[in-house]
Each structure stands twice: as structure tokens, then as C-alpha cells.
Amino acid sequence: MRALLFDRVTKTFAHHARRVLLRARLIDMVRRSPQQRFTALRDVSFELQEGESLGLIGPNGAGKSTILSLATGLTLPDAGRIEVNGRVASLLELGAGFHPDLTGMENVYVNAALTGLSRKQLAQKLDEIIDFSGQRDFINEPLRTYSQGMAVRLAFSVAVSCNPDILVVDEVIGVGDQEFHARCLEKIRSFQRAGKTVLLASHSLDLLGMLSQRALWPDHGRVIAIGDADEIVAAYQATKPKSPVAAPAPVAAAPVADPAPSGGRGEDAPAPQSARV
Amino acid sequence: MAPREFARSDASSTPSMAVVEPAAEPAITPSVSRKPWDGSYGFLFQQLILKDFRIRYRNMSLGVMWSLLNPLVMMSVMTFIFGGVVGGGRSRTFPVFLLCGLVPYNFFTAAWITGTTSIIDSAPLVKRVPVPRQVLPIAAVLSNAVHLLIQIGLLFAMALIYGYRPNIHWFWLPLIWMLYMVFVCGLSLATSAINVFIRDTRYVIESFTVVLFWLVPIFYSFTIIPAKYAEIYKFNPVAALVMAMRDIMLEGTAPPMSLIRNLTLVAIVSITAGWYVFAWLKPRFYEHI
Q: How is domain A1-18+40-87+164-255 classified at the CATH fold level?
């Protein structure tokens, strides 16, 4: 069964620095200047079957996080179709709902409720959550007394406790210590063994190669390549030493100017090969 | 140029990897199909309200006393000013009369302001957790209802001390307060969403509540208002609640039916309009936070 589908998904964001104050809003109303929009994703298509794992690879600002946010349902596309079949657990930024003045336990309760657990479900999983975090001794201490690594461990434990079908993971497991790193990897692997779908973004190419069979390489919002993870990682790495500054493809060299026709392809661009997977 | 050459040659030799070209066909209309958030709203509201309560009182030595201190101080000062300094012959029960005005006003101000800033205050959640956003302003208003209960407890205690006794009309209290809360939830839904796009909203509301203090019969009685302005007061839900409180607590009569009807109407209009404004602006929260 299909777990996740992106069909020609385009996402733009407003350039809105300082645009949230009343004065700026009034000026906008008077001038009626057309809003400048930045294209974060353009015509991104991919499909994930149940049990598959896809790694997102690419430089900062490539569109990885936007793909994850769309998959999680935090924001909506401007064009294109997104289909998500199953419950999503997002490990985008661990501890987004944590408050330093609450104890570890209180934070577990708040965050479990946010991810959609009921009181009953939480009661069943509480021990598992605390054991996995390894913070049993500190669970009734305020979170501000935790080190960052400790807090992340706790957040990870809660985030994966909601029995998801699809796991969406951003650059998060790099935070804790080696031991925790290994535990997280093992947890994600156990999800994969249980036939769950994983979508993850990481700058760590090793991690990406380890955890995903397939990879998608976006750059400046366009998909550069998609396919076998090892090959994409190799291709991506090959671009690094040659020209670390220049963007890897001429078509995607600049942020896409909005008025440009979406079909306009560079003259020297190669012919499209099987675009959708 | 080089990387693409590389990718292409690589793709042609190994069919498992495909270079993806931008699609040439026109953009398709956006559509998303996904399972909605299916958690327990009861548990979620309970946890969010508890969280707020704990955060507010954990670092205060006086704890819940703070909820009582504000109305008590206001009551004492205003009794002194209007009873002793300017007023003269105020009635003996003036403190209870004042509390009937202060409690609804305090709740309105606190709940509306925290409700308005709730989305911005929970920016990390809105950015990272796919929880239904409507929950945030409503939970903020309900958190204030906890303090409201404490203040209503104070009001009851003062009423008893000043010789008022519970009467059958006290049963109106849950209904009018519920309608009032629905009204504030509706307002907060609308303004919390607007506050994401225009951050000054919060300050406009703060100024407005200062003005409102004088427009609501808190330290004066509705009966002294000239007839030509009386009609305007009837459209003010905060004033309506103050009047209903005084009818019930001090006069021992049921609030007039017209007042209940107006309050119900205002609550329904407010929650409906608030819900729609929120739903309309919600899809763009992510990029403006």
C-alpha cells in the first residue's frame, strides 16, 4: 500500500521579514505592491510504499525541511497533491512542546497529549517511554536541570511512543551522546523491521546510507535526483569537492523567480528521464 | 554543469537512479488527503490547562493567593476612593458590588489577552507539531477559567460575609458564565489568528481593555446611566454579565430574559465568526510565525 505521495508539489513562502507589524501592513494596503514570494519547492514528486525508507539529502535551503513539514501536515502546498496514509510521528524538532519549568514527567504528559495519545494509552506506555529515555532518576526534576542531550532523549521517547505508521525525522539524532545515537538508530531500525515507513533528512551521509534504501536529492526546491540511496549519496558527494560553492545544476542555480514559466527548462538541460518514481 | 553531467551519466549506466526534471505540465490544484488528528481532546485540554497552571504558580511563593490578591487589592482601593474620598455615603455592601464587576472584567481582560497571544506564544508547537491549532486559544481561555473559579470563590465568600445568602437564582450562574466563556473563546480565536499577521493586535486589545474598564459598570451602577446610552450598554456582553451578576448576587432576582437572550446570541455569533476567521487564516500560520 502507498504510504506517502507527493505529486508535482509546489510550495512558496512570502518574504515577510518585518511584514507582521501594523505599519508595514498599512503600507502594503496603500501601495498594493505585489507580494514577493519565494519558491521553496517546485514540482516535487515522489512516492513511498509502506515499509520503504526515503532519505532527503542536500544543502541547507534545498527544501528538505519543507518536504518534511508538508508530509507532517504543518503547512499546505500551493500546488500539487499530497497523500498521507497512516498516522505520522514527526521528529522534526525534539522538545518543541517542552517547558523548562515543568518536570520531565509533566512534559511527557503534555507532549503525549499533543501527539494524540489518550490518558489510557499513555498509562500503558509510560514505563516504556521513561525506560527508553533513561531518565528514570530525574523524571520528577524540572526540565531546566536536564542537559540538552537528556532533554532530547526524553523528547525522542515521547515522540516515537504514539505507534506511528510513518516516521518523519529531521536532523535530530545528532544531538545526544554516542549511546543515545545508537539507541535512536536501533529504534528507527526496529520501526523499519516492523514494516513502517520512514522519511528522514540528514546531513550525515553515513546515517542516510544506513537507514534508507532510497534517497531524494533536492536543490533550491527542485528534485535533482531520486533513486537508490547509495548511488545518490555517491553522486551528491561527488559534487562536493569539485565546487563546494556553486549549485549542482544550472537549472536550479538561483532561487526560482516566481513569474518564470514553470515549464521553462534550460536549453542545455538534458532530456527528462523517468521523472516520477 | 559538471554535477548534472555526472548525475546523468550515472543514471544512464544504472537504471535505479533517475535524474528528475521539472514537470512541464501546468501546476495542479493543491490537495491534501491525510488522516486527521485523532487524539483525545479531553486529555489534551486537561494537560494544556494544567501546564499553564503549573507554570504560573510554580515559581511563586504565594501560589494561588495571587489570583485572590488582585481583586482584593482593587476592591479595597476602590472602596476607599469611592466610599471615603469622593463618594461619601456609599452603601455598606459596596465591596461586594465592586467584586461583581471586577471578577467578570478581570476574566475578560486576562482571557482575551492570553487567548490573543496564544498562537504566537506557542510558536514552536505551531511550527513543529501537527496538533489542531484551534486548541491553543481555547485552552488559553480555559486556563483563565481556573483563576476565575478562584475569584468566584472569593466573591461567594465576600457575599456570605456581607450577609447575602445563596438563593435559587444562583443556578443561573453556570449558564451565564458558560455563555460568557463561549463569547471570549470566539473573540480569542479571531484575534489570535489576526495577531499572527499583525503583531500589534495584542497592544490594540490591551488599550481597548483599559477603555472598557470605564465603559463597564464596575464601580457605578447601571441605573445611573442616562436612558439614551442605556441601549448601547445592552450590547456589551461584559456589561451584561456584570448586570446579571448583580441581579443574582445582590438583588436575589433572575437576570432579565432579554439579557440571557442577548448573551446567547452574542456567544453564538462570536464563536461562529471566530471559528471562521481562524479557519480562514490558519493555513498561513506556518509561514508567518
A: Rossmann fold (3.40.50)
